[in-house]
UniProtKB/TrEMBL annotation:
It comes from Grimontia kaedaensis. This is RNase E specificity factor CsrD. Residues 255-388 form the GGDEF domain. It comes from the Bacteria. The keyword Transport does not apply. The gene is csrD.
Length: 650
């Protein structure tokens, strides 16, 4: 992958032009200095040769030779000759030397000349170098100084002009850096001053096409997920999603609840009398009543199981609560006015059955169908419960939940169990902390069961504060390398008091600790309270923590939050992972989620990996990592308990 240059285009061109001009000036100065010195040396040699000629003539002329001692010293002194010797084969004939000279002995120039008119005579001359007595003078060097000044001014003007001309290119480069940083939406339209204009216009067009393609991809992904798991007419879950959730729930330890099957009359008669549109409108009206009725149960699933039959899955609800809900649901449906082709007193029937961990899904749906048929045989609107022994009937009301949770929080809060999350190479990505509490009998209750009680008594923020506090304590006292991930309720993140507490707590924590803390939030509550939660998530990211979205796919919602908050990971719900190698519709959903995260740095993780075939197909689909009993079992945070659990596992 190519790397982006750190220096701007304008700075590189300015540096290049400046370097070229400075190098040219340096070359000119060096060449001028050498030429100047060469001219001085040549002038001195020419002048000394003239002096030697005069001395040669004077020696050859007897008349001048007698007066040579009178005029020669004055000539030599005026010529800056420091020392002169006239020698012959017989020895030294004449010697001249200046007493005071400004030049150092080593700096003198020595020349030797032969006298053509006097064979055998030689003259040795030591003279001062040319320009030795000269210093820099503005007057003498005015032309050179002016030339340097003109070059500097021209260079400054040229650099300013170059920056002005390339300002548009800088804008285009800055825009490109923002696009590479993932902020293309901020610069989807370029500045009019960008240059080259063709590149700017082309970039605008490409970004517009990319935005349209992403929107189309998002709509297509939503369409795929909706058609895979949602009923087109009512918007409720379809049979595939209902069976997935029920099958996953039946394999969870400690699961319990009820399945309700609602029949709203004969579909063929309804179609014949009311037509397709009339029948669809009636089904939609009944579906709206059922959707509003299950809002009090956050984990409930409503599905259109057949044309005129709906199924409701109540999780972690006692038989008493399920029967009470069935009674209330029938009263709400009886308020509707059915079409004329249906009997007003005999148009809706409900069958209910109860389940616990380990039961078969097919057998359970047969029980619900038998209970529904029994209600139909009664000949009037009503419901019937399948008679069976309820293994786990924990009828815990708000008072019991409040008493239990108060005792747990007074004892220090819930216990935190650990489960590692690994990448495709088997290396540990992080460790998720799972909250667990113990009931009056010392039995461990999972979060999926006690979260209903938390919501019922309004202790979400209390639970989240204890979990955050314990996680920060583990990070401070740990080895400094472990990354911990904790679950936080969306309702708490939207509360002003909790936001202030979380901000103050994180501000008091070192950055090195916060960088190893991940905040997980469930997908469906996140989308539901997105406007209230988004500022808190951005604050958490700004302080150094990582945002993770879990339980993705538990309900079909839009994935627009991926682009907005850009979580580091998205964890797929375990109902999508269970037997995914045998469920093409689940594989299609996972592909859709991977496609929605593809243009962002968000990576997809799988939760609830239980078998090797599941892990193999997930790797083929392209998930980044996984979590589950196949990759690592849950371990208690207590050192003694963890040691005992590892020993039992071995």
């Amino acid at each position: 992958m190519r790397k982006v240059a750190g220096m701007k285009l304008t700075n590189r061109l300015v540096a290049f032009v400046t370097l070229i001009v400075v190098c040219a000036m340096f070359v000119l100065f060096i060449g001028g200095a050498i030429s100047f010195r060469k001219l001085g040396t040549d002038f001195l040699s020419h002048y000394l040769s003239k002096v030697v000629v005069e001395i040669d003539h004077a020696i050859a002329n007897p008349t001048s030779n007698e007066n040579i001692g009178l005029w020669l010293p004055q000539l030599l002194k005026a010529s800056d000759i420091v020392e002169l010797e006239i020698t012959s084969k017989t020895g030294l004939l004449y010697h001249y030397e200046q007493i005071h000279t400004t030049a150092q002995p080593l700096e003198l120039i020595e020349n030797r000349y032969a006298l053509p008119s006097n064979p055998g005579f030689y003259i040795n001359i030591k003279s001062v170098p040319p320009y030795a007595d000269f210093a820099y003078s503005i007057g003498a060097m005015s032309s050179l100084s002016l030339a340097v000044l003109v070059i500097v001014l021209a260079l400054s003007w040229g650099i300013r002009w170059l920056r002005t001309q390339l300002f548009g290119a800088e804008l285009l480069e800055h825009r490109g850096r923002l696009i590479l940083a993932g902020r293309a939406e901020e610069v989807h339209t370029g500045d009019e001053r960008e240059w080259p204009a063709t590149a700017s216009i082309a970039l605008d067009q490409m970004i517009a096409e990319l935005r349209e393609a992403r929107q189309e991809r998002s709509r297509f992904d939503t369409f795929i997920r909706s058609n895979t798991f949602l009923d087109k007419l009512t918007g409720a879950a379809n049979r595939v999603m209902f069976d997935n959730r029920l099958q996953t729930l039946l394999q969870d330890k400690g699961a319990q609840g009820a399945v309700l099957m609602i029949r709203i009359g004969d579909w063929d008669t309804l179609l014949h009398e009311s037509g397709k549109e009339g029948a669809d409108e009636w089904v939609k009206e009944v579906g709206n009543v059922l959707s509003n009725a299950i809002l009090r149960f956050p984990d409930a699933v409503l599905a259109r199981y057949y044309d005129t039959e709906f199924a409701v899955l109540l999780t972690h609800q006692s038989a008493k609560d399920a029967r009470l809900f069935a009674t209330q649901l029938m009263k709400a449906l009886e308020r509707l006015t059915p079409p004329e082709c249906l009997e007003e007193e005999n148009w809706v029937h409900l069958g209910i059955t109860f389940f616990s961990t380990g039961e078969r899904r097919g057998r359970l749906m047969e029980e619900a169908d038998m209970a529904k048929r029994s209600a139909v045989l009664q000949g009037s609107n009503g419901w019937y419960a399948f008679k069976k022994d309820v293994v786990a009937d924990d009828a815990r009301g708000s008072v019991r939940w409040r008493t239990l949770l108060t005792r747990v929080f007074e004892a220090g809060g819930p216990d935190l169990y650990r489960q590692v999350v690994k990448d495709v190479k088997g290396e540990e990505l992080h460790t998720e902390l799972l909250a667990r509490i113990k009931d009056e009998n010392g039995l461990i209750i999972k979060a999926s069961r006690f979260m209903n009680g938390i919501d019922l008594v309004g202790m979400n923020s209390t639970l989240d504060r204890r979990v955050v506090g314990k996680a920060l304590h583990l990070l401070r006292t740990g080895d400094g390398r472990e990354v911990l991930s904790i679950n936080v309720c969306a309702e708490s993140m939207g509360q002003r008091a909790y936001q202030i507490w979380l901000r103050d707590t994180l501000l008091q924590t070192p950055r090195s600790v916060l960088n190893r803390l991940q905040i997980e939030i469930s997908e469906a509550p996140l989308v539901k309270h997105f406007d209230a939660v988004r500022p808190t998530l951005r604050m958490v990211r700004a302080l150094g923590c990582t945002v993770v979205v879990d339980q993705a796919g538990r309900s079909v919602v839009s994935t627009h939050y991926v682009k907005d908050i850009q979580p580091k990971y998205i964890k797929l719900h375990r109902s999508l992972i269970r037997d995914i190698h045998q469920r093409p519709e689940n594989q299609l959903y996972v592909r859709s989620m991977l496609g929605a995260c593809d243009p962002t740095p968000t990576q997809v993780l799988a939760v609830g990996v239980e078998s090797q075939p599941e892990w193999k197909i997930l790797l083929q689909l392209g998930v980044m990592g996984g979590q589950g009993r196949l990759l690592g079992a849950e371990l208690s945070s207590s050192p003694a308990t963890r040691k005992r659990q590892r020993w039992r596992k071995q």
